[in-house]
Amino acid sequence: MSAQSSSGRHFPAGTRQVEIPAVKGIDGRLLTGIAPMIERAIANGEFPGAVVLAAHRGHVIYSGVFGSRSILPSPEPMRFDTLFDLASLTKVVATTPAIMQLLEQGQLRLDAPVARYWPDFAAHGKGALTVRELMTHFSGLPPDIPTPVLLKLLHLPPTHFPGWPPEQNVDVPWKGLPAALRLVEQAQLINSPGSKFVYSDINFIVLGYLVQRLSGETLDAYDTRHIFGPLGMTDTMFNPPASLRSRIAPTEVIEGALRWGTVHDPTAAAMGGVSGMAGLFSDAHDLSLYAQCLLHGGELTRPPAHGHAAARPVRILGPLTVLKMSTAQSPAGNSEIRGLGWDLDSSFSNRGVLFPNGSYGHTGWTGPSLWIDPATQTYLIILASRVHPTPDPEGNPLVRIRQKVADLIAGSLDDVSSSGLSNTGTGEIERAYPPRQ
């Protein structure tokens, strides 16, 4: 066990499969630093295993499979096709593209009040809150709907959660989408909309429900029909069937039971596993299809299907729609720079410091992350089950590992010109020089 681990835990070395193809314009020497970093974290007990996949201009430049898919109920080796609980990546893989499709179709407007599409949402002073404010996390809503399981996991009393009417007992178990929606309707603002960044799962619960109200399809059905199915993302789904359990990386032991094939997030679990904020499962291959589609301006050319002689272009979004959601949307004067759904340059960011402004991504609480850079035509996927079998007691070191891997990938790109690009934004500088007493 490494001396750096003070928690006393470690994980077995498990799998080690690394491929660094010789690709023109890539300095592969820098990429050799990824494996030791991941393996050191596994040895230190930070997470049991990981899958890392990066591509540039349509060519894979790094593929790594490390460690173990599971520790409990028995150690199993990590595989490239392991399915992960994506947690908050659900927000940008499932919910955001669905909302942007509805925007393209004229079914909603960014600066329209949410109550125009869901009248009961206006209760408790929320009538002026807009769709854009939901998507940027400047809504003023509380961070989450409290559940008894969440309160136990966070070791917090129900009174810790502001924004709930005094008559609402948030310590009482609830189940299902209707119950969640009633709680959202009862939620009170904790800030004025547009005034302060507060990352809120409630924002995307609302957005997921708007997809249902406007399309007439549940979020999972909508995504399968309009996003995952067209792109060939056959291993991306909510509530995966039991037949796939052997491929799924389990997450945390919660109240004595291992979450394995069911969503880890307590709120999404209480909602039945389908939510705009969490619940999606996927693997590195499917996420690469999605990332490549966005790099191509919302279109992906799929291989010829059976009976078809030619490749088939599939469009899920238009280039200007992709540009809109990946452009800074935060109010002026804020250091947390967000697009529509996506993180551009924030304290949560998995960007590192070398990828240019205009790149975008997101992370998930359970350990997955995705970063996409249209300027260099590069994506980076890191999938790790950091909460298995319990979260690292020393915090979330995966944050710094994501950033370091991102810098190694960006630093290896020799065939790009920096002319006309900037990789230093206002958010990064404001966070680098915080006010001092």
What do these coordinates show?
This protein has helices at residues 28-31, 34-43, 89-104, 131-136, 148-154, 177-186, 201-215, 219-231, 266-270, 284-295, 319-325, 398-411, 426-432; strands at 15-19, 49-56, 59-70, 76-77, 84-85, 237-238, 253-254, 257-258, 280-282, 299-302, 312-315, 337-338, 343-345, 360-363, 369-373, 378-384. It is α+β, with helices and mostly antiparallel strands and 437 residues long. The chain has 2 domains: 15-72 and 290-307 and 339-432, Beta-lactamase (3-Layer(aba) Sandwich); 83-282, Beta-lactamase, CATH 3.40.710. Strands 1, 2, 3, 4, 14, 15 and 16 form a 7-stranded antiparallel β-sheet that branches. β12 and β13 form a beta hairpin. It is globular, with a radius of gyration of 21 Å.
Number of domains: 2
**CATH class identity of the largest domain:** Alpha Beta
CATH-derived architecture of the largest domain: 3-Layer(aba) Sandwich
Mean pLDDT over the residues: 93
Return residue spans where pLDDT drops below 50 for at least 5 consecutive residues: none
| Helix segment tally | 13
The main β sheet shows up as:
7 strands, antiparallel
Mind telling me the C-alpha Rg? 21 Å
Order of helices and strands: EHHEEEEHHHHHHEEEHEHEEHEEEEEHH
Net shape? globular
- In which range does the helix fraction lie? 25-40%
Q: Can you tell me the CATH topology of the largest domain? A: Beta-lactamase
What proportion strand? 15-25%
Based on secondary structure, the structural category is alpha+beta
Distance between the termini: 40 Å
The CATH superfamily of the largest domain bears the name: DD-peptidase/beta-lactamase superfamily
DSSP summary, beta strand count: 16
